[in-house]
Write the structure tokens for this entry.
Amino acid sequence: MHGGLPDEIISGEHTPEQWKRRRAELERWADREKIRRAPKRLSWLNGVEVDTELLEALRLLNEAGVQTEFSCAGVSPLDEPDEHSLYAYVTLVESRAAQAFVDYAAVRMGRRLLVSYESSRRRYDLSSFMLGQNRSFCLLLENCAREYARGAYRKGGN
């Protein structure tokens, strides 16, 4: 807690049933055999190694004035179980541009997006809500970043 408020605020329109399904998927994933099929793919952005699946989204966000801090494409546990994150995510440093992007992405991505805000660190974490949807999350995030960079969020359209 920070100043009487919770340090992390989670937002989204997820139903109790969706949270229950998410927990069940996590349990099934934990019990599943994981065999490496392909290595994690990495690229460079501004001197930092990032997952290739998020490279374009991160580049577009940075160019649009949204500062990114951490990211992970998740990669499929069937590709790389040792370097797998259950959920793809991107961390944004708090700013007006970041808030505008978060608001836009929340509308465009709907229940596929989980947003948490850490007030003590002044950052947003945007992650995929469901297991196994990391690649589609990365593509949707890239589309949102492209639309945001073009100013679609100001026009109120997709």
